[in-house]
Amino acid sequence: MKHWIGATLLACASAVWATPEWTRGVIVKVDPARAQVILKHERIKSIDMDAMTMPFKVAEGVALSPFKTGEKVRFTVKEANHHLVIDAMERAP
Questions:
Q1: Contact 56, 29 (CB under 8 A)
Q2: Is residue 15 over pLDDT 90?
């Protein structure tokens, strides 16, 4: 029983630590047909990436149609097949 409680607590703590890091950026170009967006983004601390302008693929389920060039956004990224993929994006508050 003690092992089960310990495993449950560890799983809950891992979920808290795995909270995605939101990064701010500005949209340079949106290409919904290619499921891609080019962002000028700030430093992404979690992957030690300097600020730059670069294209990102977006995960299935991330709608690009609401976004326009020049909009300020915040986004989260994950690694998939050795590429960085945006898995969430919204207008910056």
A1: no
A2: no
pLDDT in tens, 26-71: 999 999 999 999 999 999 998 899 999 999 999 999 999 999 999 9
89 half-sphere exposure, CB direction, 13 A CA radius: 31
Instruction: Answer whether 0.70 is exceeded by the pTM.
Output: yes
Bridge-based pairing of strands 52-58 and 83-91 is parallel
Instruction: With beta carbons less than 8 A apart as the criterion, state whether 25 and 69 touch.
Output: no
Options 2.40.30.20, 2.30.110.10, 2.40.50.320, 3.30.70.2730; which CATH number does 21-91 get? 2.40.50.320
Round to the nearest angstrom and report the end-to-end CA distance of the chain: 45
Of 38, 92, 93, 44, whose CA–CA distance to 64 is shortest? 38
Give the CA-trace dihedral at 70, 27, 51, 58, to 10 degrees.
170
